[in-house]
Amino acid sequence: MSTSDLTVRTASPAEHLAFLASRRSASFLQTPAWAAVKNEWRHESLLWERDGEPVGAGLVLYRDLPRLRRSLAYLPEGPVLDWGGDLRAHLDPMVAHLRRKGAFGIRIGPPVVVRRWDAATVKAGVADPEVHRLGDLAPTARETTGARVVSGLHELGWRPQGTDGGFAAGQPRHVFWIPLTDAAGEQRTPEDVLKGMNQLWRRNIKKADKAGVVVTKAPAGDVSDLAAFHELYVHTAERDGFTPRPASYFTRMFAALGAEDPDRISLWTAHHEGDLVAATIAVRVGEHAWYSYGASSTEKREVRGSNAVQWAMVQDALAAGAAVYDLRGITETLDADDPHVGLIQFKAGTGGEAVEYAGEWDLPVNRVLYSAFQTYLKRRR
């Protein structure tokens, strides 16, 4: 196959969305609506075509350099392509298009899995003082497509972006998810998923139910509880030591994703005797469901509202026919004394699996400007 077999052009949001609808799933960061959420970036939808037929799509976010008509072109968790095909044939026309648009560098996040570790393996790794990172453990599974993509990107001159063992500056390379289908592709039952959770998770779900925790999914388009979610989210950020996003970010997120598809985003709340004890935001595109943001009260933690709302969202994803419930990012560390290890232990209790993606990759188009931009970023850290 030659690169002339594929072309890349600017697409309308409708063309972009129509292609995504033909796929089993895609990252919500690659939907046209995500451009409205990240409104500090310029954006463009791309369409890959062969003989006039769409075979790929991507959302490009452009970060402009001050006073220069040059930009970093970023495709978070994308583009949406046949990553098992010829990498050069797919990527060269995209690079040529983005070069014409003034990109000094291009960053992509191929949505392909490289390795997986089941919950039992992760648990054993945390307990072993000789194991410090996920990479120290033999994976439960290796994915040939992912390995081929990593090798091919190296050969084509793309540069992997490291995370230094913590959370990535961009999108997470390591996530934790619960498979909602079995090895044969058949939908699992709620009872089967619950059985796969560890004893602590099952006990906490029962404890929440016995305590009378009430979990509610807001109707599509109803954001009346969004202010309460944000208040609890800020409280969670202060307790756990992270910087919260402003309320306006979540308002945009619900407006944009909800307008594109009323079932794309949902707000969940857990109350105990009238008190809000947990709240979450869920997103779904096709067969992939995400736990996107969460908040919990320091008071009444004993009623286990967080476990209750997670279990309700898992059941909702199953009912919608999702194949994956994605708990999003984890760090690679398994050191027992690392403050991040508690997060992977919490997620491993669901009985799912740790998943390593190919990660984010950069291609310097203009090496001088790209190098200057990298220096600028290092000084900001």
From TrEMBL:
The keyword Cell wall biogenesis/degradation applies. It comes from the Bacteria. Belongs to the FemABX family. Keywords: Acyltransferase, Cell shape, Cell wall biogenesis/degradation, Peptidoglycan synthesis, Transferase. This is Peptidoglycan bridge formation peptidyltransferase VanK-Sc. The keyword Nucleotide-binding does not apply. Gene3D superfamilies: 3.40.630.30. InterPro entries: Acyl_CoA_acyltransferase (IPR016181), FEMABX (IPR003447), PG_Glycine_Bridge_Synth (IPR050644). It comes from Nocardioides lentus.
